[in-house]
């Protein structure tokens, strides 16, 4: 190579024909070593990777960007008197990395690629040295000047990494940012251009500051206008707030302009709010006043106007996943109906919370007493302490209603109450005595009856609560207060706004469009807990999620097939991945039965749950085997009866129209399709939680099984959700209702759990710890409420 090679160019370097040298004797002797080393290198390296590290004539060609593929080196150029030529030397150890002013003696160096040999040259034979870092700076500057920012960037990156203290680097880097930003702006890349100018301002605020600030102002103005044109007010406000924070005390024209624009928009809405207030259009006034301060929080008199309107007409917006179709505070399977029912109706015995021995109930019309042997249950009426129309109640009416609950021909018949009661008597108009057939641990739970207008001479089904359903406008339902406020701050109106999804509800809460969120995704609850303007609270009782058979589907009627569905459902994966999004949420777990398992270890809320019964694991092979065995059994039965073999029809899986249930059912569908089943998802109409007969085969239900002693029959009984006629299930329910004390009740609930685990009248999924969230400006909501509206009369807005 060194002796005979012609000038060549490769992908990684250049070579020139060496000429006879007039180098010093010392250096000429060293060339023999160079030749030998190059021969060895040529024998061991592929030709395309060859990099020539010296030549005896000429100058090295410019490798362009490929320079960065070479090892760092200094170029030493020799004088004509010494014979000319050049070498690529390893970085020289010279003071200040510059040529000495009056060099004397010799320079010792090593040539790249020949690491084992030292070379020397007299200083008077050296014409110049092109230092590596200066070459990088020159390459960077030339490319910036030519507008080749893509080419300049790698050279600049190496300088920043390896030579951060170079005196010219700050200017070089600043010029790159400024000129590249200008180039991008001309190409319409406003966002990247602004990012580069802001980086320049942070890095070197002194560098051409007037030009930089002018550019930032121009670009932010363009970006703000774009966001406004696209009606992205929220993003525009966030950008403006950041600009004000980052450039406080600086003269940035766009800040002044857009502050004025937002002030004018806010003032316009404030004026409209005042006009609406004068017309007593309180809903519009409230909306516009809040929009005003949302656009410009510092608008004069903004907070005062909001406070004034809230005092005159307190109104609370509640974000919900479902609005209620038929409000009923005693519904087990319909969250929306149960929530809204609390506004419209009162319950004879309303659950207030959970205690160590089941629920804690409040008698609507007074107080209760129970004898020591738990067979006498007395209701003491206190009408003098009640407000209209509740104070018109009398013992005779309540006794009649309790008797109707015993009559099988009555629509109010409830078999557990009929089985428990022996006699109902009156001791005057204010005392009702109930004699029980056997000791009962929670008789109040048996008579959770909705109190409607018929109790006071009104129409059956008419509301008795503080609110009435006023207007239904698409996804908005308004509940307005009837009569006088209980307190000066009680909301005159509660507006339920159905959100597209849980995430949409969170966005509306953060924007101030709703004051409360009724139900959160568990993962959203965890994330919102870190927001200082929002309070997140958990409902004390978890919801139990299950699949309930609701048709005469031949295969679903078979226990083996239902068991196959359980083994074919990766419940842990759906719960942890789809619903909890990988977060650990205490209390959320897969279940093996129809009752809540409690939230903590040894939680009394889980008194009906047998912790020793583990949920069935995900075993798709076993699921397929069970399905095959079940099909063979049905085929054998059909052949014996000389009937056609039942066809495995598609399974219709119904779910409420909200994204938590939808996500779960989509995941279940995907897993069951791996078992070669055909699954059809059926989304229920808004407000419905259980399908109409004939429209689905399985229903996804999130049930409030808060009092298993009573709710067991409501879930599993022949007239319950599952409509089970299984003899073992029926026996378990009857034995439970015959319990004489708390120990009996608990033992028989555990027995019932065992029966359900094996018979599978329902397919248990998981329990979720549900949460609600509200703006901290809303006071009186409470932190341990069973139902969101439990303390609605105490709510008050504070600005």
Automatic annotation (TrEMBL):
Pfam families: SBP_bac_5 (PF00496). The keyword Signal applies. One of its GO terms (molecular function) is peptide transmembrane transporter activity. One of its GO terms (biological process) is peptide transport. Residues 1-49 form the signal peptide. It comes from the Bacteria. The keyword Signal applies. Residues 498-683 form the Solute-binding protein family domain. InterPro entries: SBP_5, SBP_5_dom. Keywords: Signal. PANTHER family: ABC TRANSPORTER SUBSTRATE-BINDING PROTEIN (PTHR30290:SF83), PERIPLASMIC BINDING COMPONENT OF ABC TRANSPORTER (PTHR30290). This is Extracellular solute-binding protein. It comes from Allorhodopirellula solitaria. The lineage of its organism: Bacteria, Pseudomonadati, Planctomycetota, Planctomycetia, Pirellulales.
């Amino acid at each position: 190579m060194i002796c005979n090679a012609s000038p060549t160019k490769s992908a990684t370097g250049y070579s020139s024909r060496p000429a006879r040298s007039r180098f010093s004797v010392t250096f000429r002797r060293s060339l023999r070593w160079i030749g030998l080393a190059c021969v060895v290198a040529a024998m061991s390296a592929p030709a395309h990777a060859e990099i020539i590290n010296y030549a005896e004539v000429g100058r090295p060609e410019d490798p362009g960007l490929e320079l960065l593929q070479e090892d760092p080196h200094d170029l030493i150029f020799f004088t004509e008197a010494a014979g000319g030529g050049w070498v690529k030397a390893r970085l020289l150890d010279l003071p200040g990395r510059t040529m000495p002013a009056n060099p004397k003696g010799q320079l010792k160096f090593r040539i790249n690629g020949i690491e084992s040999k030292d070379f020397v040259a007299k200083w008077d034979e050296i014409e110049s040295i092109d230092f590596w870092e200066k070459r990088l700076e020159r390459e960077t500057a030339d490319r910036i000047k030519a507008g080749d920012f893509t080419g300049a960037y790698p050279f600049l990156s190496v300088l920043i990494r390896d030579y951060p203290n170079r005196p010219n680097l700050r200017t070089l880097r600043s010029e790159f940012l400024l000129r590249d930003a200008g180039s991008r702006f001309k190409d319409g890349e406003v966002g990247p251009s602004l990012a580069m100018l802001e980086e320049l301002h942070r890095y070197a605020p002194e560098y051409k500051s007037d030009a930089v600030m002018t550019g930032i102002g121009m670009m932010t103005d363009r970006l703000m206008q774009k966001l406004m044109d696209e009606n992205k007010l929220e993003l525009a406000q966030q950008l403006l707030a950041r600009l004000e924070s980052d450039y406080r005390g600086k003269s940035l024209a766009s800040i002044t302009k857009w502050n004025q624009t937002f002030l004018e928009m806010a003032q316009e809405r404030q004026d409209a709010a005042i006009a609406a207030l004068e017309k007593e259009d309180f809903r519009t006034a409230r909306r516009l006043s809040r929009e005003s301060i949302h656009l410009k929080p510092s608008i004069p008199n903004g907070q005062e106007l909001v406070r004034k309107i809230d005092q005159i007409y307190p109104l609370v917006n509640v974000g919900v996943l479902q609005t209620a179709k038929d409000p009923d505070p005693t519904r087990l399977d319909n969250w929306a109906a149960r929530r809204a029912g609390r506004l419209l109706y009162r319950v004879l015995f309303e659950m207030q919370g959970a205690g160590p021995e089941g629920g804690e109930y409040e008698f609507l019309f007074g107080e209760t007493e129970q004898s020591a042997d738990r067979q006498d249950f007395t209701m003491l009426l206190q009408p003098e302490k009640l407000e209209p129309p509740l104070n018109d109640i009398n013992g005779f009416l309540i006794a009649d209603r309790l008797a109707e609950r015993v009559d099988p021909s009555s629509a109010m018949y409830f078999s557990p109450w009929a089985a428990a009661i022996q006699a109902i008597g009156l001791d005057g108009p204010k005392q009702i005595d109930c004699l029980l057939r056997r000791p009962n641990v929670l008789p109040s739970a048996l008579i959770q009856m909705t109190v409607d207008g018929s109790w006071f001479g009104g129409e059956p089904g008419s509301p008795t609560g503080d609110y009435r359903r006023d207007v239904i406008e698409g996804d908005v339902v308004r509940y307005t207060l009837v009569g006088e406020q209980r307190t000066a701050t009680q909301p005159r109106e509660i507006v339920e706004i159905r959100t597209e999804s849980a995430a949409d509800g969170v966005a509306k809460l953060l924007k101030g469009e709703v004051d409360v969120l009724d139900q959160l995704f568990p993962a959203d609850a965890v994330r919102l807990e870190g927001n200082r303007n929002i309070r997140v609270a958990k409902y004390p009782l978890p919801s139990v999620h299950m699949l309930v058979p609701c048709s005469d589907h031949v295969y679903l009627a078979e226990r083996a097939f239902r068991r196959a569905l359980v083994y074919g459902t990766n419940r842990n994966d759906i719960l942890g991945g789809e619903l909890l999004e990988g977060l650990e949420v205490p209390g959320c777990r897969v279940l093996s039965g129809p009752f809540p398992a409690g939230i903590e270890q040894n939680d009394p809320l889980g008194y009906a749950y047998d912790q020793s019964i583990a949920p069935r694991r995900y075993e798709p092979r076993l699921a397929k085997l069970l399905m095959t065995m079940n099909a063979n059994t049905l085929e054998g039965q059909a052949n014996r009866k000389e009937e056609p073999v039942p066809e495995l029809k598609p399974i219709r899986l119904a779910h409420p129209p909200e994204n938590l249930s939808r996500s779960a059912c989509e995941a279940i569908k995907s897993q069951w399709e791996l078992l070669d089943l055909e699954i059809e998802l059926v989304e229920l109409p808004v407000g419905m939680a259980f399908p109409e007969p004939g429209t689905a085969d399985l229903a996804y239900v999130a049930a409030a099984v808060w009092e298993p002693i009573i709710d067991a029959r409501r879930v599993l009984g022949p007239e319950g959700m599952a409509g089970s006629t299984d003899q073992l299930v029926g026996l378990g329910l009857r034995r439970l209702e015959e319990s004489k004390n708390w120990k009996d009740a608990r033992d028989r609930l555990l027995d019932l759990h065992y029966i359900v685990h094996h018979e599978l009248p329902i397919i248990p999924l998981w329990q979720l710890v549900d949460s609600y969230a509200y703006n901290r400006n809303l006071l009186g909501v409470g932190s341990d409420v069973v139902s969101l509206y439990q303390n609605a009369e105490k709510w008050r807005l504070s600005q």
